[in-house]
Amino acid sequence: TPETFDELLAKIDWLPMFMNASPNEQLPVDKQLAIALFRFGHFGNSASVESVAQWAGCLAGMAVNATRRIMRAFLSMHDDVIHYPSAVDKEAAKEWVEAASCAAWRDGFIFVDGTLVPLADKPGFHGKAYFDRKSNYSLNVQV
Fold first, then answer.
1. Which helix (H) or strand (E) segment is 139 a member of?
2. Contact indicator for 93, 123 with CB cutoff of 8 Å
């Protein structure tokens, strides 16, 4: 949603990777975030650097650099935003699981069924292992 985009932007637009003392200007941070999110939301031919650059109206190198900066920005916050839940949060999650699904799963907090993240190409190393039931190459994310 636009609100989520604005919240993400507010978390990163002040970070040093977006400050530039070079005579070569960077794209505005909101444009860089849009490019990265577009790339993350597509796979196959539509996720190629050239396609993304054409969509964004920029050079391919700008699309690559924007995506790298956005990744560095969010990875720099990893230790502040990724953590185990508190005892109170854990208990609230257990209560929700018990009420909303199967009571037997109550103590199975911190698990989520895997979701597939499609890859643009077959990986070069053990490529067949990434072929999924939907006939795509993907990573299965399980938390």
1. strand 138-141
2. no
